[in-house]
Amino acid sequence: MAPVRPDIDPELSALLADVPLGTEIDLDLLARLRRYPSTPVETLLDGRAVERREVTVPTADGASIPLSVFSPAGTDRTAPAPCVYWIHGGGMVMGDRFSQIDVPLDWLFRFGAVVVSVDHRLAPEATGTTLVDDCYLGLLWTVEHADDLGVDPERVVVAGISAGGGLAAGVTLLARDRGTPSIAAQVLVCPMLDHRNNTTSSLQFSGEPAVWTREMNEFGWRSVLGDLAERDVPGHVSPAVADDLSGLPTTYVDVGSAEVFRDEDVAYASRIWAAGGQAELHVWAGGVHGFDALAPGAALSITARRTRADWLARVLEQPSPERGR
């Protein structure tokens, strides 16, 4: 008998009634899903004073990683701006740098932050550490070009949603382990953190359609990891298996109660606390996977976004030790 699922918020349930749900993904369905484009970013920028710049960063193996840079236009800056380095969702297998871009653009409009969004390679064409390495490379480029971008290198926030949240956690672990670059905070929105896929919430969302199911999650992780043995999965790729979560920047984690990633996200925040770190955790009652990206006008989504932005405002307003001297 399958575990009983938590109820979905009634307003979300009504708003998402026409959203096609499934149980599994295979390569044929993935090919069809990839044909659906992201919402044109131009519609989000229409009437806004935003400058956009497109760059590519070369990789050691000859690939090129696209980055989109969004900056407030017409602003007479007296000080460098904060920066949000954004990593999109899509189960590691789909999406692009414009997926869910409305989330960080809200922070550009509210805080005057420069937003840099990375188009990492996707599984199953890219495997192993390639995705997180691409994201780390883009972050290095961003910090190295901080002066040109008008960015304060001490106020760089790494943020992502779903698979992008997992990659954001992995990039932050890489930056800690390699000693560079400095990251002021990480924002992990319903992050995909654990390839083991064996929590209670994972089992609750198995066998019946949902926004993202245990079976879909298995496909995503299998696409990234291939035949890699359990003992060989790096913590930078599956952050839940990282041995040490000490020394991380202040962290924000939020997730819905009615979704597959709930328990691994709660466990990750708990492990940060256990390691002496600072994390803020929100489990939104009745929230499905990615609810505030799917239904931004719902009351629960508005509250979740406001709470996340208020936390980020507090973090960005705190002077770093270097600037505070």
User: Total domains, how many?
Assistant: 1
SSE pattern:
HHHEEEHEHHEHEHHEHEHHH
Q: How many extended strands?
A: 8
Widest sheet: strand ordering: 1-2-4-3-5-6-7-8
Our measurement of the CA-to-CA distance between the termini, rounded to an integer number of angstroms, reads 60 Å
Helix content: 25-40%
Q: Look at the helices and sheets and give the structural class.
A: alpha/beta
The second-level CATH architecture is 3-Layer(aba) Sandwich
Per CATH, the class reads Alpha Beta
Q: Given the C-alpha coordinates, what overall shape results?
A: globular
| Unreliably modeled segments | 320-325
Q: For this structure, what is the CATH homologous superfamily?
A: Alpha/Beta hydrolase fold, catalytic domain
Strand content: 15-25%
Mean of all residue-level pLDDT scores: 94
Radius of gyration: 19 Å
CATH topology: Rossmann fold
